[in-house]
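Dock zinc ion; give full complex structure.
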Amino acid sequence: MIHPIKTYPDGVLRRVAKEVSDITDEIRRLARDMAETMCAARGVGLAANQIGQPIRVVTIETGSEKESVPLVILNPVIVALEGEDALEEGCLSIPGFYETIKRAKEAVVKGVTIDGKEFTVECSGLLARAIQHELDHLNGILFVDHLSPVKKQLFKREYAKEKK
Ligand code: ZN
């Protein structure tokens, strides 16, 4: 089922998501719905907060041939970050707004698949960026929080204006 995506400044985007303790039917359904919703919105990643469920589930699909992470990751944790890269970023919850954001170039991520298997993967490029972005969502952080104070002010002003 495709869900409406919560947009800024919805409060659920600021909630710190809860760990998944059991892979229940509800969690499986949530993961399936998230994959469908992400796909329909043509996003490269989605966190459960974005469909109103503050639970530590993310879906990632960068369309890269070297895709090395599962589509659904439960309880993701970043084990290591390396390097730095500044690229333009956007978010399904902040439609129409893009800004250059500095993030680590490479990431080592640990998590659990929907089948309950633990895994650790190293990733880089768009995938590493998407994972850092989605993990932020689980901690109630949005990509605009990484902007400089001046750009943050501009965002708030411009975005609030557009919404009227
Ligand atoms: Zn986002």
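Observed: Residues 91-93, 133, 137 surround zinc ion (CB under 6 Å).
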